[in-house]
Design brief:
AAA_lid_NorR; 19% strand; 17 helices; Helicase, Ruva Protein, domain 3; 41% helix; 14 strands; Rossmann fold; alpha/beta; Beta-Lactamase; 5-stranded parallel beta sheet; 5-stranded antiparallel beta sheet; elongated
Length: 463
């Protein structure tokens, strides 16, 4: 950036001809209008400015050694003599730092189209500073600085809240909590591929973000739902990281892939290509559902990467003794009553960590005093009753006693795995449609109410 207000500048054509010189520059050179060949040779940059694809990106900085103006117009000097004069300390030489910037191609005044002369080169003198040293107010203005500071503050608050939630997830003195905490603390100190396995809603995203920012705080990061990422979508949504890796050979990046076990095969193939292209620069943090990893195996390179450093988040039912410490850390300034703590310990928490944090946030908003009671918890939790162990119904009517099976209750409903049940039901529907259509995929897709391409994708996943 040019910090000086001096208007010492000149324009040079692509063939090396000086097109224009400002009056201030003429005064600095010590000439009236005509620029002699030695001076012209000194202020014209190297031909590298016209080369396409050069690393300078259209900007060069050069130290000028301009000889003194000749005493008479007849005095001429070759370019070799000019360079020799510039390197001779005894010669009268005017020195300065110049910046050269490549501009757009020249346009013909009559046709308003670009001429064949190529781009113009702007040369200028002045006091220059690096972009990093220029105050933000000069770049963005006062309003831009205030908005940027506000955005930075919001990002800092979000990361602090996310880190606090992750630390509360690690709290506890049970063996399961201590083992999880030791694994996460080591992952925060190293940069390698990570896999986080646990039940749905276990807080894996909070841990993944915390481990990334602790081990590589300035690294580019993109978080994706891998179950939706085929090859094309992955290329588009991961571009902030992938583009940096392609443009700069020293850049590193991280992809956090939620539900990695459900990622389409072509998306996994694209990930494999990237891992082979940037084996040490691209890091993957995969989040796997412990209930679906066996039914959705990953392709070989991704499976090996996920085995490098696995972190397993235990079920909350295994950490019942830690719930008091975990929930107390999520509260603002209130405390739980003893009845409420007993209820929190007995509740099975099917939604895991996400259900727990949502319940604590709800209780914080509902409570008005210093204590959180049973009535401040969500309805599903405060109305929970432990399941009865009685498996038979005993009916006494006068002197007659009847023993029989206990009638089913809505509270008895339970599935081993919702994803596995839905996948099995979906496979049965596809099989019935294919049978009804005599193997015609287009007809089977019409009977299922989906597109043919989607049916083909489903069939490839089932095979």
């Amino acid at each position: 950036m040019l910090a000086s207000t001096a208007a010492c500048f000149w324009l040079i054509d692509a063939d090396g001809t000086i097109v224009y010189v400002s009056p201030e520059m003429l005064a600095w050179l010590g000439v009236d209008e005509e620029i002699t060949a030695p001076i012209a040779a000194a202020i014209i940059p190297d031909p590298v400015m016209w080369e396409d694809g050069a690393t300078h990106r259209g900007h060069l900085t050069r130290r000028l050694h301009v000889p003194a103006a000749p005493s008479s117009p007849d005095q001429t000097t070759t370019q070799e003599q000019t360079r020799a004069t510039a390197t001779n300390p005894s010669s009268p030489v005017r020195e300065a730092t110049a910046h050269f910037v490549k501009l757009a191609a020249r346009a013909d005044e009559e046709t308003e189209t670009a001429t064949t002369n190529g781009p113009l080169i702007l040369g200028c003198l002045g006091d220059f500073t690096d972009d990093a040293d220029v105050p933000w107010t000069l770049w963005f203005g006062e309003q831009g600085v205030r908005e940027s500071a506000k955005l930075d503050e919001q990002i800092a608050k979000f990361r602090a809240r996310q880190s606090r939630r992750a630390n509360m997830l690690l709290a506890g003195t049970s063996p399961a909590s201590r083992q999880l905490r030791s694994r996460v603390e080591l992952a925060c100190r190293i940069r390698c591929h990570l896999s986080i396995t646990g039940p749905n809603g276990c807080g894996a995203n909070d841990l993944a973000s915390m481990m990334h920012h602790a081990s590589s705080p300035n690294e580019a990061l993109v978080c994706l739902d891998a179950s939706l990422m085929d090859a094309e979508l992955l290329e588009a949504y991961a571009s902030p990281v992938v583009a940096e890796l392609r443009e700069n050979q020293h850049t590193t990046g991280t992809l956090i892939l939620d539900r990695l076990g459900e990622m389409p095969t072509d998306g996994q193939s694209r990930l494999r290509e990237w891992l082979e292209m940037w084996p040490a620069r691209l890091r993957l943090i995969g989040i796997l559902d412990s209930e679906s990893t066996a039914s959705s195996p990953l392709i070989e390179p991704l499976a090996d990467a996920m085995q490098l450093y696995p972190v397993e988040i235990p079920d909350l039912s295994e950490r019942a003794d830690d719930l008091e410490l975990m929930t107390s850390g999520l509260l603002r300034s209130t405390r739980f009553s003893r009845e409420t703590l007993d209820l929190l310990r007995s509740y099975p928490w099917p939604g895991q960590w996400e259900e727990l944090t949502a319940a604590i946030q709800f209780a914080n908003e509902m409570a008005t005093g210093e204590r959180i009671g049973r009535e401040h918890l969500p309805l599903a939790i405060r109305s929970y009753r432990p399941s009865q162990t009685q498996t038979a119904l005993v009916d006494t009517n006068g002197c007659q006693t009847t023993i029989g099976p206990r009638p089913p209750s809505p509270r008895d409903f339970k599935l081993e795995s919702l994803d596995a049940t839905l996948a099995e039901y979906e496979a049965s529907l596809i099989a019935r449609a294919m049978e009804a259509a005599d193997g015609n995929k287009a007809e089977a897709a019409r009977r299922l109410g989906i597109s043919r391409s989607r049916l083909l994708r489903k069939l490839s996943e089932l095979s």
